[in-house]
Specification:
Layout (H helix, E strand, L loop, with lengths): L19 E2 L19 E2 L6 H11 L2 H7 L2 H9 L5 H13 L9 E2 L2 H10 L11 H16 L19 H15 L3 H5 L2 E9 L5 E8 L2 E3 L1 H8 L5 H9 L2 E6 L6 E11 L4 E6 L6 H4 L8 E3 L12 E13 L2 E10 L2 E6 L2 E5 L1 H9 L4 E9 L4
Parallel strand pairs: 2-3, 6-9
Antiparallel strand pairs: 1-14, 4-5, 4-8, 7-8, 9-15, 10-11, 11-12, 11-15, 12-13, 13-14
Helix pairs in contact: 4-5, 9-10
Length: 376
């Protein structure tokens, strides 16, 4: 059984059939270079379409593939299974997602990876369908902890106390602290920094807060309530960064006070993963209209001048209704071609159709992956 070839899909409109290209099939369309790339399908292990979609998204990110396919790294993981268990099963997954020539076109059953997730986190021990947004955070966080070459608790490298009186000095110290404690393929590829400025409206004291994340969770519900229209990624980022009023504890006032809070994005990496959290498929969150864009310009949100600003879409995890159930799929860019991954079935597909389907709300985006223009 060759899971990689699918000549038609019920979801494709008849007039758009030429936009969905079976892998290795011949086509008379104006697609200039029909791909000969073979991909590996993933077996659904029981309500695990959310897991397969996340794995295909991560599997098609070159930074991760380049790390897990290096022989020296594979040997290190083989020698340290006990201390890097999730990294080991992820490396084994990558060897199947990028098979040797004679094994191309296979289907892989990610049961060892699913068992490992259940071993590391009790919520993944059942067959129940889970939230892909929480899963991708858990995988990236765990991989970073296992692969981090620096010890965050190293007494020879103590954390420096930042100066709250000067924002630039505060940022420089916190970034130094972060770099002294973090060095992995995850932190170097995905981590972005948030500088939160909190100003007490009673005493005028300004405080700063530094956070680092490997995924960027956006409040699409709050953004939609404010905009009351089909929202974009820029709308969500604008809503995230704009000044808000909150009641928080003031260090000087010694009690809760009304504060003005705003956020800046700092030191964006090559890859940005945005989480458009749809919860556990709540209908009110699924109905929020989102306009999907291929290229985004983030210059108005990224503070420091030397960080990249222009990003291209490279991957999506989406949900769609199939009969009476909701299923997750992944759309991923690989070697200049786009593919739709639905468990064992894989189709090559035109970018125009991907954008059209999403903007017509046939597919509902949950996770978006963007990469710096020119690095793909």
């Amino acid at each position: 059984f060759n899971a990689n070839v699918s000549n038609s899909r019920n979801k494709a409109d008849n007039e758009n059939r030429e936009n969905l290209l079976p892998i290795n099939a011949q086509s008379n369309s104006n697609h200039s270079n029909v791909s000969t790339i073979r991909k590996t399908g993933l077996v659904n292990l029981g309500d695990s379409s959310y897991l397969n979609a996340v794995l295909q998204l991560l599997g098609n990110i070159k930074n991760l593939a380049n790390y897990f396919l290096v022989p020296e790294n594979q040997k290190m993981l083989n020698d340290n299974i006990k201390y890097k268990p999730l990294s080991f099963v992820i490396y084994r997954l990558f060897t199947h997602l990028y098979p040797k020539e004679e094994n191309k076109g296979e289907i892989y059953k990610p049961d060892a990876l699913k068992k490992m997730l259940g071993y590391l986190n009790v919520v993944y021990r059942t067959e129940k369908k889970r939230n892909p947004n929480e899963l991708i955070c858990f995988i990236l966080d765990t991989l970073h902890k296992e692969l981090n070459t620096k010890n965050p608790n190293n007494p020879n490298n103590p954390k420096i106390t930042p100066d709250m009186s000067d924002k630039d000095k505060f940022i420089n110290v916190e970034i130094t602290n972060f770099n002294n404690s973090n060095d992995s393929v995850i932190s170097n590829s995905f981590n972005w920094f948030e500088i939160k400025e909190c100003k007490c409206n009673q005493c005028n004291e300004t405080m700063y807060n530094f956070n680092s994340f490997n995924t960027f969770e956006l409040d699409i519900s709050g953004c939609y309530k404010v905009n009351n229209k089909q929202i974009t990624l820029n709308d969500c980022l604008n809503f995230y960064c704009e000044k808000k009023q909150r009641n928080l504890l003031c260090n000087t006032y010694k009690k809760k006070s009304n504060m003005s809070i705003s956020s800046d994005i700092y030191n964006a990496r090559d890859i940005l993963i945005f989480s458009l959290n749809r919860g556990n498929l709540e209908e009110n969150l699924l109905k929020i209209p989102f306009y999907l864009e291929y290229m985004v310009d983030l210059k108005s949100f990224i503070t420091n001048s030397n960080s990249p600003k222009n990003y291209d879409l490279i991957g999506i995890v989406s949900v769609f209704k199939k009969e009476q159930n909701y299923n997750y799929v992944a759309f991923c860019k690989s070697n200049g071609h786009w593919f739709l991954f639905e468990d064992e079935i894989i189709d090559e597909i035109r970018l125009e159709l991907i954008l059209s389907w999403h903007n017509a709300h046939k597919y509902i985006p949950c996770i978006l992956a963007y990469q710096v223009v020119g690095t793909q």
